[in-house]
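Example record used in the benchmark description.
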Amino acid sequence: IPPEKLLRALLLQMLYSIRSERLLMEELDYSLLYRWFVGLSLDDPIWDATTFTKNRDRLLDGDIATAFFTEVLTAIKGDGLLSDEHFTVDGTLLEAWASHKSFKPKDGPPSEPPAGHNAEVGWHGEKRKDDTHESSTDPEARLYRKSNNTAATLCYAGHLLMENRSALIVDAELTIADGYAARATALEMLGRLPRQARRRTVAGDKAYDTKGFVAQAQKLGFTPHVAQNTNSAIDGRTTRHGGHVVSQRIRKRIEEPFGWTKTIGGGRQLRYRCRERNGA
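Model output (structure tokens):
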């Protein structure tokens, strides 16, 4: 399968919320608009779903997804829509394609496969942690919860870097879910931006109001416009300026692409196993 046709087909799957490759092939077979977009004629045979899945791995080897994203950014920048002064960072949890039943002890003896299609598994009173357990379905998924009032799920952490003028995404990452991934990945994405002599700003919620993140962001040439905790790492020297208020108002728009990802894009529960595939 040519890479450009493969990439167009994957875009259709995401933009139109097609939940599987097999259903995507079925819709390509009878939709003239889909055929035209992908670059197939009326007489071209449709690929087998298994063949399409195996060819999709070629996008990972060639890093085609990153190249495509870069080309889109270049086109947007050419139209003057991207700001290079004001940014926002945020993260969210994306549920992995693995169930609680697959979360088993790492060093335990191999257990007999349960009888029945959906047999019950009891872990009442068992301490289940990432240090001692891992998912047999997706070993890279981590058991994590957003707050003390929510249930823990096997998930990954998704991160976005948004510019504040047009609320467009300029960088994205998918990492292992833990308590430090949001700030570490935010600094990594900020570090990938072109260096500038003048000062820039980066907005964030209260999760980014730590001394470590503020200090590292300042070293990278960014003034952290983060929401303040009770013991805040920023003070009146930052909050007295009107730009802090503006950044806090604009930063909420980063929730829009997260919402799109979890509804239209089908990312509420990720389709694939392993971080590399889902990240692409």
